[in-house]
Structure formats: structure tokens, C-alpha cells
Design a protein that fits this description.
Chain lengths: 423, 309
């Protein structure tokens, strides 16, 4: 008898069993698309699977969910090593700008994708946010975050402040804050930084970015930043901010207890307040435009195809992105269930926009946000934006907490950024 | 029954040691060498590995001239000193006290001090951030309650202390938590060392009329010298690599004015927030150099001498 080879026997039986399992489940013929996403985009994709299966019964979708920052770290790593790349990658707007600088993502405006033929169907600024300096579109917008001012109407009433006082100008916003603080003891807003964040995004000239222009010139030593810093300083010296960071315990506690009167934010926060941050404050909140007619975007999700993903899956990946971002019903369903404001313009005429929002005391706020979305313009992204944001925040800390002179602070920031501008 | 192929005696040791070697090469050696390689490259990570470009010592020059790198080193040094020195100043007398005063209860007492060390950093950070919360935290509420007691009002500040928001408060708060976390570990180290000191020395000293303090000063401390060397070395290395506690307590950017930003946090941010892996690797090797120098100095200060004690 031949000598028995145990290893070979074990291996071949494993392969046989595995093969049998594959054919039995039909996986042999089945194509699988991997979608990597963060909450709540993962739920939105999962909810769309039945619609997808109706169109492509032979293509399965596997959703890999991670927490927000884990997801983006994982995507950075996957792109840097070109391994374990998903077929479709969800990205938050900040990371779209960052990844668009490199060339790790498919250019969707080239054949066979040709997203530009559908350009007019997307909210204009969101489409522009996904377009890089080379004119490539690296992702398709899925949902957007039009900026809004949420405020507690009951606290305003108690303080005798009219909603128009909040929004007429930034100065009247701050002086209303003083009245509110003296009459009720509530803070105007969570952190003085919030007001700076909006003001530095207001009045950006064409060809300029937020911190750098397209020739790497540093823009922070300018009236735009000076005014932002001055207003933040006024807020702090008059003790109008609670000095709490967004998403901290104190922040949500502040909403629950009515210690925070207003929040400059994306429209989606109303949904979060209603669902878990402060459900008991239902009916007391209202939404309005940002003060002084400012417009800004807060967050937004995009879907992209990594260049290094399996080539055979790319056509189907693009079909999935089209289904998710260009299907009216799915976009509306995500809006209704996850407060994901649709990036698809044809949904904006849906009667759902006219419905009153109970949490906002029956206000038809979606109409307001729809107009806000149409007024937002995209700002050019620079490679060092993340660093610049940190520099500016640190200098603002010094102004607010240590009384540093604003002009010196901005000059220091300018010097730090110049060293990095071309790095 | 089929027989599995036999391992030859020459091969056996290598096969048995291979699990460690394989894991060490993958998770220890490779990252180390790769970061050394990266320190000499400029790399846009989202373009893939092939986009690296050799730049010589550029990253080191950049790191050397980077204000924030020096700021982070200063923060690290401050925190390492403020959390490390008290650890040993408290742990040695505490261990001596536990050693001499507890008999049956000893293990329970040591366990209580050791507990923070084995608790997850995240749980600790969450607990302390709610304790230190400005308006709703137990510490400020306690301070205010203390202010109500007649005669104690002058000790309590008029307003709630913004522990985690003010740059002046962040460092002491973080240092206090690091101290609280590791003091128990050092107590265990010193207790172990105390048990090796022969009883006869103390008996002889008592016969000669030495008091408890003199025994501590002339017998216990000199005998602890090797363990102090070991403990201080661990504190120096751990202190310079401090990352988790401040990272979770004050967030990735180190709180207001980056007062809690240690070097390890800064180089992590350089890589993963600012996408500059080259400079981050260069900084990590510079941090390594600092650790080596300080460990060597510790060695000089505490190494056993021939004429010791």
C-alpha cells in the first residue's frame, strides 16, 4: 500500500468541502460588492439593498461599518497600502477634500462614469466640493448639511428677545446674547469657537480658499479672520459661551437643561436633538437662517470608488452609487429615517418638505434649509487645511483664554502656516 | 493510525520559538524599520506606497525647526516630571507603611492601590472627565459644598473651576490622573523589594537604638536603590511616551492651547490628521533619542555603586 499522506488528505478534503459549500450557496456565480461606511450612511446603504436586489439579483452587497473616525483612519490606511480597499467608500466632506488632493480615488467625470452628465441633478455646492483643482470629480454627493441657527424660542421669549434680533447681524446676535444671559442665565452658545468657524467661511473671495489661496499664499492675516476673532472674543469676555465642545457630555447636558440657547449647526442636528440629545425639549426649538445672511455647510456624506479596488467590480460599484444618490425614493427615505438631507435636487420638490416638523414646534423648516442649500458655495480645499484649522484654533484659544492680542495671534498663525504651505 | 511527520531534533527549537519570532518580526521589527525608512521619505499616503520619494534629512530638519514639536516635548517633560516624581515620593513611604503596619489586610490594601493600573484607560478617562466637568462635575460640586461650611469659604474659588478648558488647569489635572493611575504599580514594586530586606538588619538596628525613621532612612532606602532604579526607568520611559490618558481626556488636539498635547499625541496627529507620515516618523525617532538619553542619565544617577550603603 502507498504511504498515507495525512496533510494532503486533510487539505484536499477541506478544499472539497469548501467547494461544495460554495456551489451549494450559489456563491460561485455571485458577485459581492463591499461598501465601507460610517453611521448613519451604513444604515442608509443597508436600507437600499432590497431596491438593489430587484435590479441586480446576482450582486450581493456587504456593508462594513465602523465608527466615524475609525472608518476614515481605515480608509486612509487602505488607500496608502492599496489593500483591503472596498468597492464603494463613504466619505465625510472633510476627507473628500483631503483625498481629492491625491489620486487614490476614481475620477467619476471620466468615462465610463461621466458623472458630469448628471451634474445638474445634484445640489451645486456639494458637487463642487467633490471636484478637485484638476477638475476631477472624486465622489458623488449623497447627503448635505445646510447651515442653520437653531434656537430655544421659550428662552428668547422669557428674555424678551425677538428672533429677528438674533439674525439681523452678528453684532445684534451677540447683544441679544447679553440680554438672554442677564434675563435667564442661559448661555448664548456652546463655544466662542463656533462663531469664528462660521465667520471665517463668510466673504471668501473667488480664487481664495479658507486658509490658503491657489498659489499657496496664506490668508489668515486678513480682516475676515480679524472679525471672526473679535466676535469670538466679545462672546467670551461677556461670558456668553458655555465653553463646551460639541458632542461632549456637557454639551448634551446643556441642551437638556436649557443652558444653551442657540446652536450654529447643520440642519441634521434637529434630528439628533429629537432622537437622543434632548428629546424632552420638543416643541421649544425653532430654526432660522444664520445671522447676517451667512451661509455655510456643516458636514455631508459622499460615495467614492477607490482606484485600487477590484476592476471587475467597478461598473457595479458605479451602478450602486447611482442608485443611492440618484434615486428619488431612496434619497427621500434616507431623509425621513436618518435626517440625511438629500443631495439630489429632484427630491427637493417633494411634499415632505412642506410638512411641519413637530420638534421645531410645527415649523416648516425644511423649506428654509432648502433655500439655504441653494445659496451655499463650495470653498477650494488645500492640502494643509487640517493643520491650518488646528493652528487657528490654538491661536484663538490663546486670545480667549490668555488674552493674547488678536493681531499678534494672527501674525503668529501666518508665520506657522507659511512654513507648511508648500510642504 | 497515520503518523504525523516527525520534527527533527535540529529543527524543533526553531519551530517552537517561531510563533514569537514571527509575531515579533511582523508587529515589532517591521514597523520599527519601516518608520525609519519613512523618516527619510515624503509621502502622500492616499496615493499608495509607490508615491514615496526620498528626501534625505529634510523631515528631521523640518521636525527640528517645528515650534509645535518643541512645545509638545515641553508638555511631555512637564507631565512626566509632575506625574512621575510624586509617584515615587509617595509610593516608597506608602509601601513602607503598608509593609510595616498591615498584616492580614495587606493584600486587600495593595489591591485597592493597584486597581487603577489594571483598569482600562478609556474607563478612567470617562470617569474623570465627568468628575472634572465644570458645571455638573462631582469635584466642583464638592468644592462648592465645602464653601458653604463657615470658615472654609476662603479656600473655595467663587466660580466653578474649568478643569479641562483652561490651559493652566489641564496639565495638573492630567498629571494628577497619571499619578493616581501608576502609584499603585510602584507600591507593588517597592513592597516586593521591601520583603527581600533581611529582618536581621532591622533587629540589629533596634538593638543599637535606631528609631523607626532612622531605620527607614539608613536601612530601607539604601536597600531599595536597585528597585528605585528600575521603577524610575519605567516612569521615565512611560512618561515620555504618554499618550492614552491625555488623548482621551482632552481630545486629540490636546485641549485649549494644546496644553495637554504630548509628543506622542503630536506625532500621531502629524501622521493621521495632517497626512505627514515622513515628518511624524522623523519625530518619533527624535523622541526615541530623548528617551535613550534620559534613560542613560537615570542609569548614571541610580546604578548600584560599589560603596553603596
Amino acid at each position: 500500500m502507498k504511504r498515507f499522506k495525512p496533510l494532503r488528505a486533510v487539505l484536499s478534503s477541506v478544499i472539497l468541502v469548501g467547494f461544495a459549500a460554495l456551489t451549494a450557496s450559489g456563491a460561485w456565480a455571485q458577485q459581492v460588492l463591499t461598501v465601507a461606511a460610517f453611521p448613519a450612511v451604513d444604515d442608509i446603504v443597508r436600507a437600499a439593498i432590497p431596491a438593489w436586489k430587484k435590479k441586480y439579483p446576482n450582486v450581493d452587497i456587504k456593508v462594513v461599518s465602523r465608527q466615524f473616525s475609525d472608518h476614515h483612519t481605515a480608509m486612509t490606511t487602505a488607500l496608502s497600502t492599496s489593500s483591503y480597499l472596498p468597492d464603494v467608500m463613504a466619505l465625510e466632506v472633510g476627507y473628500v477634500g483631503r483625498f481629492a488632493q491625491g489620486n487614490g480615488l476614481e475620477n467619476l467625470s471620466a468615462a465610463p462614469y461621466n458623472i458630469q452628465t448628471s451634474k445638474s441633478r445634484y445640489v451645486a455646492y456639494a458637487y463642487d466640493q467633490a471636484t478637485n483643482a484638476r477638475g476631477e470629480v472624486v465622489a458623488a454627493p449623497s447627503d448635505i448639511g445646510p447651515g442653520t441657527l437653531l434656537y430655544r424660542s421659550d428662552i428668547l421669549e422669557k428674555a424678551g428677545v425677538k428672533p429677528e434680533d438674533l439674525t439681523r447681524s452678528w453684532d445684534s446676535y451677540v447683544s441679544s446674547g447679553v440680554k438672554i444671559k442677564t434675563a435667564t442665565g442661559s448661555y448664548l452658545l456652546a463655544h466662542a469657537r463656533d462663531i469664528k468657524d462660521i465667520l471665517i467661511r463668510t466673504g471668501i473671495k473667488p480664487g481664495e480658499g479658507l486658509y490658503f489661496d491657489k498659489n499657496n499664499r496664506v490668508l489668515v492675516n486678513s480682516p475676515r479672520f480679524e472679525r471672526a476673532f473679535q466676535l469670538a472674543q466679545q462672546v467670551r469676555t461677556q461670558k456668553l459661551d458655555a465653553k463646551v465642545n460639541a458632542w461632549s457630555n456637557e454639551w448634551s447636558e446643556g441642551f437638556k437643561r436649557g443652558a444653551l440657547t442657540t446652536q450654529l449647526t447643520g440642519a441634521w442636528l434637529a434630528g439628533h436633538l429629537n432622537n437622543w440629545l434632548a428629546p424632552d425639549t420638543k416643541g421649544k426649538w425653532r430654526a432660522s437662517d444664520l445671522p447676517e445672511g451667512a451661509s455655510a455647510a456643516f458636514g455631508g456624506a459622499f460615495l467614492a470608488i477607490p482606484k485600487g479596488a477590484a476592476a471587475a467590480n467597478k461598473p457595479m460599484a458605479w451602478e450602486l452609487i447611482k442608485l443611492l444618490t440618484q434615486t428619488r425614493e431612496l434619497q427621500l427615505a434616507a431623509f425621513k429615517s436618518q435626517d440625511a438631507f438629500p443631495a439630489l435636487l429632484e427630491t427637493h420638490s417633494d411634499p415632505f418638505f412642506d410638512q411641519p416638523i413637530e420638534f421645531l414646534g410645527g415649523q416648516k423648516a425644511r423649506l428654509l434649509w432648502r433655500t439655504a442649500a441653494s445659496r451655499i458655495t463650495a470653498v477650494a480645499v488645500h492640502k494643509q487645511d487640517a493643520f491650518a484649522e488646528e493652528v487657528i484654533n490654538t491661536e484663538l484659544d490663546k486670545v480667549l483664554d490668555q488674552g493674547k492680542d488678536i493681531k499678534t495671534a494672527l501674525a503668529d498663525a501666518h508665520r506657522l502656516l507659511e512654513r507648511r504651505a508648500t510642504r | 493510525m497515520p503518523r504525523l511527520p516527525r520534527l527533527s531534533p535540529q529543527m524543533a527549537p526553531y519551530v517552537f520559538i517561531s510563533p514569537f519570532l514571527v509575531l515579533f518580526v511582523i508587529f515589532g521589527l517591521f514597523p520599527l524599520l519601516f518608520s525609519l525608512y519613512l523618516a527619510f521619505q515624503v509621502w502622500e499616503p492616499t496615493n499608495g506606497l509607490q508615491s514615496m520619494e526620498f528626501v534625505g534629512f529634510d523631515n528631521f530638519v523640518f521636525a527640528f525647526e517645528d515650534e509645535w514639536f518643541w512645545k509638545s516635548l515641553k508638555n511631555t517633560g512637564w507631565l512626566a516630571l509632575a506625574s512621575g516624581v510624586p509617584q515615587h515620593l509617595v509610593a516608597i513611604p506608602l509601601a513602607y507603611f503598608i509593609h510595616t503596619s498591615f498584616k492580614g489586610l495587606r493584600n486587600g490594601v495593595v489591591g485597592a492601590y493597584f486597581l487603577p493600573y489594571i483598569t482600562s484607560t478609556v474607563a478612567i478617562a470617562i470617569m474623570f472627565s465627568s468628575l472634572l466637568s465644570t458645571d455638573y462635575g462631582l469635584i466642583n460640586v464638592g468644592l462648592q459644598a465645602m464653601g458653604q461650611i463657615p470658615g472654609l469659604g476662603w479656600m473655595v474659588p467663587a466660580e466653578n473651576i474649568d478643569w479641562m478648558g483652561q490651559p493652566d488647569n489641564i496639565k495638573p489635572a492630567v498629571a494628577m490622573i497619571v499619578f493616581w493611575r501608576y502609584v499603585g504599580f510602584n507600591v507593588v514594586l517597592y513592597l516586593a523589594a521591601l520583603q527581600t530586606i533581611p529582618k536581621d538588619l532591622y533587629e540589629a538596628a533596634t538593638m543599637d537604638g535606631a528609631g523607626r525613621f532612622q531605620q527607614f532612612w539608613f536601612i530601607t532606602l539604601p536597600s531599595l536603590r536597585p528597585m528605585i532604579y528600575f521603577g524610575v526607568t519605567l516612569s521615565v520611559i512611560g512618561g515620555l511616551q504618554l499618550f492614552e490618558e491625555p488623548f482621551i481626556l482632552v481630545g486629540g488636539r490636546g485641549g485649549s492651547d494644546q496644553a495637554g498635547m504630548t509628543s506622542a499625541m503630536y506625532l500621531y496627529g502629524m501622521a493621521f490628521d495632517f497626512n505627514d507620515f515622513g515628518a511624524a516618523s522623523a519625530m518619533s525617532w527624535m523622541l526615541f533619542a530623548v528617551v535613550v538619553v534620559l534613560t542613560w542619565l537615570t542609569n548614571r544617577a541610580f546604578r548600584p555603586r560599589n560603596n553603596a550603603a
